[in-house]
Write a structure and sequence with these properties.
The protein has 291 residues and is α+β, with helices and mostly antiparallel strands. 46% of the residues lie in helices and 24% in strands. It is rod-shaped, with a radius of gyration of 70 Å.
Length: 291
């Protein structure tokens, strides 16, 4: 039989084994408790991190929504500004057209101002001319022809031209008839040539002195110099012979420049014709006196 010591020793071994087991179990429990605590801490940390991440995600969602809204608003604003830019480009084109129109208007205005200035100058000139014409109106001698209609011929007697009805005997027929009016004008006797019709003072039989108040209207048939003075031979177209006296230049009053046929001063409208040359075979004769 086992001894008491053996039993005690076995008991001790059992107790030791039990204690070892208990210690091992306790250590394992402690280790497990530590691991559990660690895991719990990790779980808590992960949970907190997850919560933070969720919060951040929520915030990001809010931020993303805000950014999306802001992006949409920005796109709308960009679209609006794009449309405004198109409008501004149209306005710029219209502005350019308006500038061109304005420049054209300025040019037209300058042209109008220039034209106005020219018209004003022309108006002043015309006013002066009108006043001059008014001043000359009283000097315009009307001559009417019985076979014409309308306004009369008006001769400016201030120029030296003079209409005259002749005291006629027909010596200048057919160039000048008794019913015609002659227009004569003072000229330089050096400009008078053969064929011209002149008005000169009537000479007495001595061919030197003149008859006061009496004049001839005859055609020049020749010229010559006597004592350094120009003289003219004359005759009436209808007279058979020339005038007996040569006419000195100092006795020539004027040259006939036109004939108004069948006319009277201040009676009817004129028909003006130059003094014709004598017809072939016309008779020569003494000129008719005129005044």
């Amino acid at each position: 039989m086992p001894s008491r010591w053996d039993r005690t020793a076995g008991l001790r071994r059992s107790v030791g084994i039990l204690l070892g087991i208990l210690l091992a179990v306790g250590a394992g429990f402690v280790l497990r408790s530590f691991e559990v605590a660690t895991l719990e801490d990790q779980v808590d940390s992960w949970t907190a991190a997850a919560n933070r991440a969720a919060t951040e995600l929520e915030q990001n969602d809010v931020t993303l929504a805000d950014q999306t809204n802001a992006s949409t608003a920005l796109q709308l604003e960009l679209q609006s500004k794009g449309e405004r830019l198109v409008e501004l480009e149209d306005v710029a084109v219209e502005y350019t057209l308006l500038q061109s129109t304005y420049s054209a208007l300025q040019t037209a205005t300058i042209a109008v101002q220039t034209t106005q200035s020219e018209l004003e100058t022309a108006f002043v000139t015309l006013s002066i001319d009108y006043q001059t014409l008014l001043a000359k109106w009283d000097n315009l001698q009307p001559i009417f022809s019985s076979d014409a209609q309308g306004e009369p011929l008006r001769v400016d007697i201030s120029s030296g031209a003079s209409p005259r009805e002749l005291v006629c005997t027909g010596s200048m027929e057919p160039a000048i008839g008794c019913d015609d009016v002659v227009i004569h004008f003072p000229v330089d006797t050096a400009d008078i040539s053969t064929g011209d019709v002149i008005r000169f003072r009537q000479l007495k039989s001595d061919c030197k002195t003149t008859v006061p108040g009496w004049f001839f209207v005859h055609r020049v048939t020749g010229t010559f110099l006597r004592d350094g003075e120009l003289h003219f031979w004359t005759k009436g177209d209808a007279n058979p012979i020339g005038d007996p006296c040569a006419v000195a230049a100092r006795h020539v009053v004027s040259k006939v420049i036109a004939v108004i046929y069948d006319a009277e001063i201040s009676i009817a409208s004129p028909t003006v014709a130059p003094v014709p040359a004598p017809a072939a075979g016309a008779q020569a004769g003494a000129a008719e006196a005129g005044n």
